[in-house]
């Protein structure tokens, strides 16, 4: 009985448009994602966005909102902050000793 339902669900997913099927697969995979894997994917996203802006002044940086991933239910409470940052070193904040 359970195998038949699984087979029907798999057949239904194959009939979905490609974008919806990809989204469903990502949602399914995220259920098994560890915290370390999540952080690695976030780092990978930042690497990709920094490479896509070759020659531009700013790019997007994705970071975890501090404390949003500290509970055991981090998958439902995590918040990601998106910030536009400068790619130029000369625009980085300057610190003084005074």
Automatic annotation (TrEMBL):
Domain of life: Eukaryota
Protein name: Ring finger protein 141
């Amino acid at each position: 009985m359970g195998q038949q339902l699984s087979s029907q669900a798999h057949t239904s997913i194959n009939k979905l448009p490609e974008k919806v099927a990809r989204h469903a697969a990502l949602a399914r995979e995220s259920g098994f994602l560890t915290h370390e894997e999540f952080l690695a994917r976030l780092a990978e996203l930042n690497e990709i966005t920094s490479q896509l802006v070759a020659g531009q002044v700013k790019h997007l940086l994705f970071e975890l909102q501090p404390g949003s991933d500290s509970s055991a239910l981090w998958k439902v409470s995590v918040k990601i902050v998106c910030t536009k940052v400068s790619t130029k070193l000369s625009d980085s904040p300057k610190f003084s000793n005074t």
